[in-house]
Amino acid sequence: MKLKSKITAICFGIVSFATTAQSKSDLKLWYNKPAAIWNEALPLGNGRLGAMVFGDPSVERLQLNEETIWAGSPNTNAHDKSIAALPVVRKLIFEGKYKEAQDLATKDIMSQTNDGMAYQTFGSVYISFNGHNDYKNYYRDLDISNATASVLYEVDGVTYKREVLTAFADQVIAVKLTASQAGKISCNVMMNSPIDKTTSFSDNNEIVMTGTGTNFEGVKGKVKFEGRLAVQNKGGKVTSKNGILSINGADEATLYISIATNFVDYKTLDENQSVKCKTYLEKALPKDFSTIKNNHVAFYQKYFNRVSLDLGSNENVKKPTDERIRDFKKEFDPQLASLYFQFGRYLLISSSQPGGQPANLQGIWNDMVSPPWDSKYTTNINAEMNYWPAEVTNLSEMHEPFIQMAKELSITGAETAKTMYNARGWVLHHNTDIWRVTAPVDQAASGMWPTGGAWVCQDLWERYLYSGDKKYLAEIYPVMKGAAQFFLDFMIQDPNTGYLVVVPSSSPENTHAAEDGKSTIASGTTMDNQLVFDLFTHVMEASKLVAPDEIFTKELSTALAKMPPMKVGKHNQLQEWQEDWDDPKDNHRHVSHLYGLFPSNQISPIKTPELFEAAKQSLIYRTDESTGWSMGWKVNLWARLLDGNHAYKLIQDQLHLVTADQRKGGGTYPNMLDAHQPFQIDGNFGCTAGIAEMLMQSQEDAIHLLPALPTVWKSGSIKGLVARGGFVIDMEWKNNKVSTLKIYSKLGGNCRLKLENTLKGDKGISLKKAKGKNSNPLFYDVEVKKPIVSKEAKLPKVQLPKYNEYDVEMKAGQTYSFFGN
After folding, report:
1. 3-class DSSP state for residue 423?
2. How far is CA 664 from the centre of its chain?
3. Cβ contacts of residue 58 below 8 Å, gap of 6+?
4. What span, in angstroms and rounded, lies between the C-alpha atoms of 144 and 150?
């Protein structure tokens, strides 16, 4: 599927104690020509509203989204036909009849009604300027230091400027039009949409577009939406007729755009969208652009300014951003890596705000009625990847929509678990949408994967390790427990091995070698075992902390003892399946069996060296270049493998410029959005998390400083990263060694530090050599079963630098300073 754009002719966290050091001028994506296609336009968002700014002087296009405009309406796609099919499918799998099992699962277990609804565009606002096609001195940018976009150009000796923002505080899109001479702002403005059920009209001096989301796969569209546009002008005249607003001879003008829907929650559509839309607009109109911008910037910067990254800079910053992306692999441009890291944080703030919807497959930016994969939530990697940067890059509040979705899925998923599998708890397969459908969708090759709930719960648990918030843990514990209950009922003993396994399932979307090599369906895949291991162990630990239940935790412990260990195959690889089916030439985009390395912490160079080396070999076999999101995951994996140079090589591969004439292969579009292809936002978030992992890790029993620093980042600084345990890290390094370190402790407790060079504490700080287990319970360590290693495997020994480890007892609310030796 290709993304298409058509331009018509009408035309919480705590703020880091160290202030940001990153220059505002370094935090701009800028270009010397307008966007010709959607993948060149620049994204703005306030969590609820999204805008793509094209910047054409003659016809400006603002492609707009509102996060709750989806096809269809509240529904469930669960069914009970699966109950009779399930034991038959299992029997066929155990007999090695995988194709037959997969075909039957597609026929009788996959959704019998719909495969989930599509996220849809609102449409576009077009601003047409007569005679502005003959322009010069063109410039446009996206300034991620303040979340605003601007366009600047000259026509007939007059300099024209546009400023655009999606106001966080005022919940409108504001566009300010100015010129260097009075009376020069003249334009026509209109709205339209590719959704059929839309009507545009004038309402006094405003223009309005109303519509309804489409019917989709048999589900009636019931999301009603309204958009309104008004103008505040200085000088000149404004008229509105037949859905077109005309500005003639103004000195300056500010457009205010509001959008609202009737959406209340995943089961309710009874808000008055027209009243809501008018209210947003009426509250914003009395405010001038400066006021709206000041409120907007203040809101945004309280999140964005928590973290700064300085990797150095050079002459490349003087080039347009698309040229820098094009040249990144051949020219050292450290500031582009910093910009890319911060762009991911910008996108998360812009697409995921508390009280709203989580970022979907495209964040909130989509110009289609039927986008690729419906721009839903793909929960076998992509939805979770969107939130990998949330805690570590100091954007915990942005995590809240995902957590709320998990709570809602535990409700709808309980119905699916009971209806489809006669199981307790709740289930989530590989996709969901705004209506929180949880049944398996598409074909069994991709959809017969019932382990989404376990992965969602891993994310919920991680947030607790960063926050230490037991009230939060008590809140999400029932969600985690429900997911565990499902697997206790769903898992059965594999008669061929005797192990307790998840079946039917798959290693997401990858075919295995059995039969004709075209089936994915299997029993007890490595990823499933890792996910259920994490779920059960986390629920057991959470239960001790907030809901003691010895009977239930014993049930989990008993089940864990019956599950298979990880295995190392004949090619020195971590086996993806229970059978040694892995093909060293398989370079599939999913690396699902490496979940245990990242984002989990089951695979460690110290505690599980054989698995560590096997995971490395699996990753080598998979190769580097792939889809955009896959490369984003691999940055994190190579960081966990403590190989900074290889992680950096993946960043170079990811920052490969994808242009309109490149039809295959991943990378980065000119607007710095991730190319699967097509556009998916997860690669941006994955790379931002990966850069953080290169600089600091805390998944085991210590805060590991500069664990995977590439040699090219010889000197630099990072401020505001958050480690598990609630420690905020400000760090500088020189000659690849930590030089200065400041740690702010939110929660107090033991802070264990791990690094290659030695540390000296500031006056009065007691710095002790670390001994034994870390006493801080938020550094959650796990013990996995000893792996089964093939007799044909010949694993090298893990080679590690010599590390120094220190313990510092810290008090909540205090800052501690250290110096490297």
Report:
1. coil
2. 22
3. 11, 128, 129, 132, 133, 135
4. 11
pLDDT at residue 131 in the model: 95
Backbone angles phi, psi at 304, to 5 degrees: -65, -40
Q: Are 305 and 287 in contact (CB under 8 A)?
A: no
Give Rg (Cα) of the chain: 27
Task: For residue 329, count CB atoms less than 10 angstroms from its CB and return exposed for 0-12, middle for 13-18, buried for 19 or more.
Answer: middle
How far is 190 from 257, CA to CA, in rounded Å? 11
DSSP reduced 3-state for 225: strand
Alpha-carbon distance of 569 to 134, in angstroms, equals 65
- CA 382/CA 375 separation, integer angstroms: 11
Strands 42-45 and 674-675: unpaired
* Omega prior to 87 cis, within 30 of 0: no
Tell me whether the omega of the peptide bond preceding residue 578 falls within 30 degrees of 0, making it cis. no
d(C-alpha 223, C-alpha 215), whole Å = 10
| β-pairing verdict for 703-705 and 749-755 | parallel
User: Encoding tokens for residue 339?
Assistant: 């910009």
Place of tokens 């289930």: 427
* Total residue count of the chain as it appears in this document: 821
Cα 555 to Cα 562: distance, rounded to the nearest angstrom: 11
Structure tokens at 142: 């996206």
Q: Which stretch of DSSP H or E encloses residue 82?
A: helix 81-94
The overall pTM is greater than 0.85: yes
CA distances (Å), 616 to each of 271, 529, 621, 642, in order?
52, 19, 9, 10
Query: Can the peptide bond before residue 678 be classed as cis, meaning omega within 30 degrees of 0?
Result: yes
Query: What sign for the dihedral angle of Cα 81, 82, 87, 90?
Result: positive
Q: Which two tokens stand for residue 403?
A: 């957590």
Q: Is the dihedral of CA 390, 38, 361, 575 positive or negative?
A: negative
Structure tokens at 250: 């103004």
Strand 158-166 with 28-31, pairing = unpaired
For residue 817 the two structure tokens come to 């300073």
User: If you average pLDDT over residues 271-288, what whole number do you get?
Assistant: 98
CA torsion sign for 393, 395, 396, 398 is: negative
In 77-135, DSSP assigns E strands to 123-128
Q: Is 723 helix (H, G, I), strand (E, B) or coil?
A: strand
State the chain's mean pLDDT as an integer: 95
Give tens-digit pLDDT for 719-740.
999 999 999 999 999 999 999 9
Q: Which of 22, 821, 138, 70 is nearest to 376 (CA)?
A: 70
444 bridge partner residues: none
* pLDDT above 80: residue 413: yes
Residue type, 645: N
CB 56 within 8 A of CB 124: no
Q: Strand, coil or helix: what is 164?
A: strand
